[in-house]
Amino acid sequence: MLAHIIEDVTLLKLPEEGTTKLHVRFKGGKIQTLTTMNPKSSAQQIKTKPSIVELVDKL
User: Fold this and answer.
1) Predicted pLDDT at 3
2) What 3-state class would DSSP assign to 59?
């Protein structure tokens, strides 16, 4: 159903900002720009916080 209303979508990944901009062009000519945060890598998701490492070092 979306294929009937969306002409195209352009994704612009901005790694320095940690975001991705989505430019959606609809068949009627309207353009909508959305911004979303990039997901963290799996390594970043499981990395221990520095404050925890510091606490373990003190113990």
Assistant:
1) 84
2) coil
The reported pTM is: 0.62
**Cα Rg of the chain, angstroms:** 20
User: What Cα–Cα distance (Å) separates residue 13 from each residue in 9, 25, 28, 57?
Assistant: 13, 17, 26, 38
Decide if 22 contacts 11 (C-beta within 8 A).
yes
- Beta bridge mates, 55: none
C-alpha of 28 from chain center = 27
Structure tokens belonging to residue 17: 């900002």
10 with 23: CB under 8 angstroms? yes
C-alpha dist (Å) from residue 42 to 2, 18, 25, 59: 31, 15, 32, 28
